[in-house]
Each structure stands twice: as C-alpha cells, then as structure tokens.
Amino acid sequence: MAEPTELISSLQHFSVGDGPGIRSTVFFQGCNLRCPWCHNPETISLRPVLLFDPSRCTDCGLCVRVCPSGAQALREGHHVFIRSLCAGCGACPDACPADALRLSGRAMTVAEVLAFIEEDRDFYAASGGGVTLSGGEPLLQAPFCASLAAECHRLGLSVILDTAGQVPFAAFEQVLPHVDRFYIDLKCGSETPYRDLCGGSLKQVLQNMARLVAAGHAVTARIPVVPGYNDRASDWIQMRDALQQTGVREVHLLPYHRLGTSKYTFLGQPYGLWPVVPPSREHMQALRAIFASDFDVAIEG
Description:
- The protein is built from 11 helices and 13 strands.
- The model has no long low-confidence stretch (mean pLDDT 96).
- Helix 5 links the parallel strand 8 (130-134) and strand 9.
- The chain is of the alpha/beta class and 301 residues long.
- It has a 9-stranded mixed sheet. A two-stranded antiparallel ribbon has the order 3-6. A two-stranded antiparallel ribbon has the order 4-5.
C-alpha cells in the first residue's frame, strides 16, 4: 500500500523568521483565504501551480521536449509559456537548467519531508530552533500535519504550526498532541472587513484561539500591519479588545513588505498593492504601544 502524500509548496532550510532559532519550514499547498497582501500567492491554489521567471530563461527548449500538454513552446526561437495548458505535472522544472521554472505543489510523503528536516538537526539543537509548518493553510491537511509533527517529536524536535485559524476546531484537535506552539494570524478587528478582505470569519479565528488557550496550549497572535487596510489606531484597538477575550497574551507584529511581489509576476497575476508603502518604524512603535500594557509584544522583521 502506497504511503499517503500531500502537496507541499516548498521546503526551506535555515529559516529565521518562522519562530525562534534556526528552523526548517514546510510550506503546504492550498489556502482557504484570499488576503490581498499575501506574500506566498503560489500556495493559495489547492492544485500544483507553475512559476515562470522569464529573466532566467535561456530559450534552450528543454522544457518543450518534456511538456506533455503543450504548455511550453518555442516560437521564432523564443520560449513561450501557455499557462492555460499547464497541467502542473512538474516535468519542465526538473528539465530546466536555468531554474526559470518552479512547481509549487509537489506530492510528498511524510518520510520524504522528514528526510529534508533531519538534514539540519544539529542546527536546531545549537540554536533552539525546530520545525515550522506553514503555507498556505497547513490545517487543510491536518492528518498529514499530525503525522509529520508526531515524527518530529519522536526525533526530539520542537514544532510550531503557523495558521490563519480559519478551520473547524476539529482540525486543531488532530495535531494538538504534537505541536508546541501555534502561530495564529489576526488580520482585522471586526467581522465585516475580515470577510470582505480575506474571505473568512474573525469569529471562528477568535473561538479557536480561546479554545486552545483554555486547553493549555501556547498561542501567539501574529498581526500583519498593512497600511491602508488594518493600520489605523481604531483597527488596533478593536484587535486588542478582541484578543483580550481569548486569553492570548503574546503578540507579534509583522510589518508589510514587498518581498513576495515578484511571485505574482511569475504566476502571471497582477499585484494590487503596489502603491502601499511599508509602515515606518515610528508607526510600528505607536501600534505596539496600544498592546504593550496587556500583552507581550514583539515587532518582527
């Protein structure tokens, strides 16, 4: 019987922004939200998607030879990618010598992911690091997360699960014995903007936070600071008041950045936040002060 697989967007060594110490981050494919500022847009689709960086392409034609669907072509000696024909099979990235093509969403087993994680065991021990399960939304694949996290615990590795919390609590219950801390996004302070901006329910997120804390699990609320979307003082007062009801006492503020914008180009998609400027240090400190009296607050990045 074949070992179960799940779609993994990517695996990252030496991650220092996904929890304490040096970590390996597992990015799962698939998300049930549509945040306009998403810096991992390749992980949103529930199916494999191909990223194409034309600046790296050398027009060698090797991808054309292996593509079974005709999505890769040469026209007058120049490479053309016909995205509508792409089946996401992964043949062309494996053939591309210039790394101009990358598949997000490869089917992997727990054993294959664990082999990647084990490569850096010495670094985890020396730095107080471990493994972070991220995405996308990892809890859309809760059984796989639970199996992988259990194997990490068997090896003595700590596990953080980074989630938007937009799932039934039953998904959390599957992973509870094997996760050391939950990072849960808080994107807005009231129900309507959460639904309109991201396509989810703030109420569900807050309920999941409260249930985790009540059951004795470690929870950190992570708040992206996106100018023009959720960075007014009134927004933050709403978020502070909402968090106070959950029992969460650790908050990380994540300033908006543009590091993922090139991915939209590689996916053939427009990026709607080009006019948005990252928040100033002074603005971040002002927002931090709103939480400082009631929470342990850190600014990431």
